[in-house]
Amino acid sequence: MRHHRANIKPSKKYWKLLLKPAAKLDYKNFHRFSQFKYFTTEVDVIDNLLSLSPELAQVYAYAQRLCGAVRTHDVEELRNALADSVGAPETFETCLTYIREHPDYIENTLKHKDYSNGPLEGTNNRIKVLKRSGYGYTRFKNFRLRVLVMLRTKTKHPIIK
User: Fold this and answer.
1) Cα separations (Å) of 25 from 20, 49, 136?
2) How far apart are CA 79 and CA 69, in angstroms?
3) Least crowded by CB within 10 Å, which of 51, 82, 85, 119?
4) Digit-coded pLDDT (tens) for 73-97
5) Where are the alpha helices (DSSP H) in the chain?
6) What is the Cα–Cα distance from 63 to 102, expressed in whole angstroms?
7) d(CA 147, CA 126)
C-alpha cells in the first residue's frame, strides 16, 4: 500500500504537465522537481508518470492526438482520432460523447478559425460590471440607455422618446 501512495504523490503534483502539449515540453533543461531525488526534465517526469499506469499512458496519447488535431485545425485528423477511440477508458468516453454528438459544430469551428466569441464575451462582461456598479436603475429604460451610451451603439430608431 505504501508503494502505491508513493506513486500517487507525483501524479497529483505534476498533473499540469500532463495537460501541456507534448511539443511544448522541455526536454533540454534539467530542473529539480521536489518529488524526484535527481535533476530531470519535464519529458522525464511525464515518462515516469505514464509508466505508473498503462491506462493513463493510453489516455495521454489519445488526448495529445485529439488536442493536436484541434490545435492545428485539422478536421480530417479529428475524424480519424474519433474513429480510433474504441479502446478508450469509460471515463474518457464520456468526454468524447459530446464531440461525437455534435461533429458538424466542431468541424465548423475548426474550419472558421478567424471567428471568435471573445468580443461578445467582453461586451457581456462590461454590461454585468455596469449592472453591479449601478446598484439597480429605477427603470429598465435608463439602464438600456446607459448600456447603449457605454457601448456607443447606433440604433435605427431614436433612443429617447
Assistant:
1) 7, 14, 49
2) 9
3) 119
4) 888 998 888 888 766 777 778 878 8
5) 2-13, 15-19, 42-52, 54-71, 75-83, 90-101, 103-111, 118-134, 140-151
6) 18
7) 9
